[in-house]
Automatic annotation (TrEMBL):
InterPro entries: DUF1280
Coiled coil location: 33-60
Keywords, alphabetical: Coiled coil
Protein name as catalogued: Uncharacterized protein
Species the sequence originates in: Caenorhabditis japonica
A Pfam family this chain is assigned to: DUF1280
Amino acid sequence: MKNKWERDRKDWTVEQKLKEATRQRLKAPEDMCRTLKLALDTKEKKCEELAEQLACSVNKISNITTQLELTENSLDAMKKSSFLSATRSKEASSKGRKEVKILSAEIIMKAFFKKSLKFDVLSSRLSVTNLRKKIDVTGRHNIEIVEKEVLKEGVKTTIRSARCSIKNLATEIRERVENLEKHNLLLATDELTVCLLGDKGSDATKLCVSIEDVANPNSPGNLLLAGIKKRPPM
């Protein structure tokens, strides 16, 4: 009996040891997984902290950059203000302390052209386009280049010259008379005298129509270009 009891006891002990070993083997992966999870959580927290610190650093750098830009703008404004103040003080002292207006070159040119030419040549693109349409002669005259062969120093040479002719003479005369009547430049007569004038110059031959019954006969308002031909260079 004693031997049997000891044998059973040994078997039970061996069985318990096997169970304990099995439990330890099963527990080891769980402990490892738990350890890895804790390590990952710790790294995630550190990454979040680093991201927050990086965002704070970026905001600080942005604020510093903005402050630097504001400082540079302030310095530029101070330099410009001091330069203008010095310029104004110098000009005022040289001209008896009078107020001096600093005008740009564009303003001066605009004022000069407007005063001299009676219109602003530096106006907007729309105004320039309207002026171009107003003075455009291509709708009223035919402009063409005429080629002609001449004998020059024993050699045949082709020379080119410009020729301009009015498209509709009757329509142009009617519009010019209406324009003169609109501005009260026609004399109060029942009849209208129209003359055809010609001028053969050294470099061009000109042909124009003159309306005689006007208040100012010497003005170009009563003259209408009918045709012109440039003489080719010899």
